[in-house]
Amino acid sequence: MPSGIKRASTIAIAATTVANLASAQDLSATYSLYGTPGLLEMPTAQTAPESELIATFSYVDTLPRTSLTFQVTKRLSGTFRFTAAEVFNELTGVGTFRDYNRGFDLQYRFNNETDYLPAFAIGLRDVLTPGRFQSEYLVASKSVGDNVIVTAGLGWGALGTRDGFDNPLGGDFATRPAFDPADPEGQLATDQWFKGDAALFGGLEYQINDTWGVKAEYSSNNYPQGPGNIAVDVDSPLNYGLTYRGDGGYQLGLSYMYGNQIGVSGSFALNANDRAGGSGLDPAPPPVKPRSPDLLAAQSWDRKALPERAVRSALSGLLKLEGVTLRELEMTDTSARIRYSNNRYRAEAQAAGRIARMMTQIMPAPIEVFILEPVRRGIPISAITIRRTDIEQFENRVGGTDALFEQSTFGDAGGPDGLTPVDRDTNPFAWGLGPYFRFNPFGGNGTVNVDTGLSLQGRYQIQPNLVAYGAIEQSIVPPDDDSTGIDPTPDIQNVRSDASSYGNDGVPVLSRLTLARYGRPGTDLYSRITVGYLERFFGGVSAELLWKPVDSRLGLGIEINEVAQRDTDMKFGFDEYDYQVTTGHVSAYYDIGNGYHTQVDLGRYLAGDWGGTLSVDREFDNGWVIGAYVSQTDMDYADFGDGSYNKGISVSIPTDFFTGTPSRGSYRNSFRTRTGDGGARLSVDGRLYDVVRGGHKADLADGWGRFWR
């Protein structure tokens, strides 16, 4: 038996033997150089806490990596990784060049560890980009006492290159197709999964205390030498590491790799189910004011003793304290209908709860029905009808939140008839000066790309549904200019690949300047027309129509844009490129429930290519939104690259997650496998689905637990 197999077998036998003697423990996972729960480069069967997002930066000479891992469920995780690997020159056989590899991993843990049974997991590395790192594995991990975790596994592909043996699966799995760097990336290479030689790997981790830990592993990745392979000189299969875990969810690592190199790493974790700002600093809501039995018997109210104008003024003042603007009010003998803008609370259900409490304080006793119509971008987006009696009965009752939701009704907002505008003293002009931050850890030149500076923004509300908006930016730390002066795709318009040339001359630039009008052309219909400098790279006209019933999880939309490419100085001109294009999509939206949203867009992109994008987002109760998307178009592989499709993830973190104070603000960023010209969609502010869905039944149901907050 080869010595490598002997050593790996010894690890596996020891791991299994000791595991069977140990009781199950709850040792939290540490992170590998690959950004996943693991040892140094070898995976473990451990998982991070559900909904944890981990960013990892690691460096070993020839192998710098940047990774984002998200624990989708308790057992399923996904990792998006960028590696700027040095590769032996395929033509000369000597020297190296950088190969920028963008990969995606999946791991699924089958079971929880028990007193006698380890946790088992299956994993796929680089599942969407078959190549130098692609591998599959089965792995088991078992805690031993309070401080030790032992791991043993079986790997294929890159994890089967050290002292590999015949595939135990046999048959069609015996041979693995050879990797060819010329093959298009971006395809599911199912013909390679779990094929070819297999090899054993393993290791252990000892947690000295809550802060310090040590690791040791036997690696089954031999990094074969030769042209076209990764330029890693491996003297030993044994790797060793030291970890430091500090407060605040970060981990630092120092490792000795391959018998000849030092590695460093840093992992930073945030959990979408936690809240950095604590449980929240929301001001206490006002109590419900119940009516006495004799007041309940009244059939109408004395408008002379309590004029409507006085009611409107009092309610407007109270709502203003809650960050809510009262727009319009209709009062009958038994009902009150209000239109309002929620300027403070991220969840429309929380704003509705605050408003309903205020109305019990102000409204005459005979008014039994409250109809709440939230307004966004100047248009009413729904009608929430609640009986006052239910509010009084369910405020402090166990299960009252769910009962109130069941008793309430949700429908389209009513017409303007009967509504009386409320005198408003709000200034139609608003402005602000603050920092902006754009971050891309997967830059095309192998570097972390950061652009940060100051943004001056102004907004003028000409009418409730007609708004002018402008933004001027001054970069302080500009992004790296990764342009080479050579256009690799001369037949394709550079709609995104020239991004580093925009606004890089050190002077203030016009980021956006738009005029947007929103409307309600019919029942369940919403419209938007935006003109001006729509984004950093394009200006023109964007028109959108959305069909979205309040009580339906399905929405359908269409968007058409006629745009021209802006000059790279980001002033007012369109002459530099002399490029104009008609672009647009038809879209389908579906709310799956429990915070999951899907979206399919089919149409024409900015470079003239036709195709589609599938997006899946998960929105958490605390406002986090984490999503993944994939776009594929008809653009030729040679121009698009990576199989003519793009993939990536997006993260949106609400401001109140950090501050604890109510806010509708958020920070959003997307991390893509590439920033090329294929599949590039116009980035226009205020698309209708995101504007209206917060006030519709499915989203209200997800956030209804905040009604009494």
Q: What's the arrangement of secondary structure elements?
A:
Blueprint: H1 3-21, E1 52-60, E2 65-71, E3 76-88, E4 96-109, E5 119-125, E6 135-144, E7 148-157, E8 198-207, E9 212-218, E10 238-246, E11 250-257, E12 261-271, H2 293-296, H3 308-321, E13 324-331, E14 335-342, H4 348-362, E15 369-376, E16 379-380, E17 383-387, H5 388-394, H6 400-407, E18 409-411, E19 420-421, E20 429-440, E21 449-463, E22 466-477, E23 509-519, E24 525-533, E25 538-547, E26 554-565, E27 580-593, E28 596-604, E29 610-619, E30 625-633, H7 637-640, E31 645-654, H8 655-659, E32 666-672, H9 688-692, H10 697-703
Parallel strand pairs: 14-15
Antiparallel strand pairs: 1-2, 1-12, 2-3, 3-4, 4-5, 5-6, 6-7, 7-8, 8-9, 9-10, 10-11, 11-12, 13-14, 13-19, 15-16, 15-17, 17-18, 20-21, 21-22, 22-23, 23-24, 24-25, 25-26, 26-27, 27-28, 28-29, 29-30, 30-31, 31-32
Helix pairs in contact: 3-4, 5-6
Quick overview:
By secondary structure, this protein is mainly β.
Give structural notes.
With 709 residues, the chain is mainly β. Among the domains are: 3-271, monomeric porin ompg (Porin, Beta Barrel), CATH 2.40.160.40; 293-425, 2-Layer Sandwich (GMP Synthetase, Chain A, domain 3). Helices cover 12% and strands 41% of the residues. It has 10 helices and 32 strands. The strands form 3 sheets. Strands 20-21-22-23-24-25-26-27-28-29-30-31-32 form a 13-stranded antiparallel β-sheet. Strands 1-2-3-4-5-6-7-8-9-10-11-12 form a 12-stranded antiparallel β-barrel. The termini are far apart. Residues 1-25 have low confidence and may be disordered. InterPro entries: YbjH (IPR010344). Residues 1-24 form the signal peptide. Keywords: Signal. Pfam families: YjbH. This is Exopolysaccharide biosynthesis protein YbjH.
